[in-house]
Amino acid sequence: MRKLRVAVAGGSLGGLFAAILLRQDGHEVRVFERSSQGLEGRGAGLVPQREVFEVLRQIGVEDAVRVGVVARDRITLDRDGAIAQRQATPQMQASWDHLYSAVRRRLDDGDYHLGRTVQGASQSAAEAVLHFADGSTEGADLVLGADGLGSVLREAVTGLPSPNRYAGYVAWRGLVPEADLPAAAAALLLDRFAFYTVPGSQILGYSVAGPGGETQPGSRRYNWVWYRPVAPADLVGVLSDASGDAHPYSLSPGQLPAARAEGLRDDGRALLPPAFAAAVAAETRPFVQAIFDYEAPRMASGRLALLGDAAFVVRPHTAMGVAKAAGDAMALRAQLGRLPLDSALQAYERERSPVGTAIAAYGRRLGAALG
């Protein structure tokens, strides 16, 4: 197997999975992440799927996903807060933060470059090149676009304009220290996967580990997600931060204007069962992400390939975004291990494109009542 120079645009979990696996096979890999501060603290809860367990085993951090909180059952609440339905289906929820930190430690700091904003990519028969906002470039035998929802490498791969399609609703989110939940809400919600659904809206929540992987009661966090419709004309306002700057996809904790955060809490008190209303009210820094769809017509071209959300944006209801990226990374590694580069990328696309298409369709079905 020929050893390759690989440049990865995007340093979240998908990019890290690919980088570590390819590094294990002897390739020279460098990851370029646009954030200057790193990605710790940006995630919430994660429901790990089979592919996540497998990729963690392959990179040697399988214990990371075992740091989680088990929901003993699933409950659906009615408007008054009573349990309308209960299913005894235990399920473990992991902490994205803890998982990311464990995976990140598997890649040398010298191969992970922060504050490097990629603007695009080009290629020739001899090499592919990443182009950065500061005017610098990075040549490689293979460039991977693992740059997520806002991928700037899609067009270089597909040869087409590649905008995301807004789905018509957003996810308001909170990650509350469970000690901050009122006693009545904690008694009902903790150690359960809870839902409340009305036409056009749904809130769900579950317990996750604390920021340092703490799993003992009192040190964990409660992760809630509230899906609500937002008209396309209103989306810019929803995604404008406290300084009035509009963001394309989401607002991080601390960016939401105080008046809008208080309005969210007021809406919770007016519209949600008491326990969920209390969870929303307990979040001091709620954040929001708009829900989008995207399916790449191609995942590879020449020396360029897409991975994870850069190729297929799937709705969060699937709980399969990280699993899909993990599957992409493992498939890419396997194909590069048995075929020359060009043939390997073609085989990678044939294998993974149908998977991305199927998961995206599944997400649209799950979210059909919301947007």
Describe the structure.
Strand 19 and strand 20 form a beta hairpin. Helix 1 packs parallel to helix 9 (321-338), helix 5 (183-189) crosses helix 8 (274-282) and helix 7 packs antiparallel against helix 8 (274-282). This protein has 371 residues and is an alpha+beta fold. The protein folds into two domains: 5-34 and 115-162 and 296-366, FAD/NAD(P)-binding domain, CATH 3.50.50; 65-95 and 166-291, D-Amino Acid Oxidase, Chain A, domain 2, CATH 3.30.9. It is built from ten helices and 21 strands. This is 2-polyprenyl-6-methoxyphenol hydroxylase. Residues 4-157, 296-359 form the FAD-binding domain. It holds the Pfam family FAD_binding_3.
Sheet of most strands: 9 strands, mixed
Cα(first) to Cα(last) distance is 47 Å
The chain-level mean pLDDT equals: 94
Structural class call reads: alpha+beta
Number of domains: 2
Query: Helix fraction?
Result: 25-40%
Low-confidence stretches: none
InterPro entries: DHP_3-monooxygenase (IPR053212), DhpH_subs-bd (IPR054707), FAD-bd (IPR002938), FAD/NAD-bd_sf (IPR036188)
Domain FAD-binding: 4-157, 296-359
GO molecular function, one term: FAD binding
Domain 2,6-dihydroxypyridine 3-monooxygenase substrate binding: 166-293
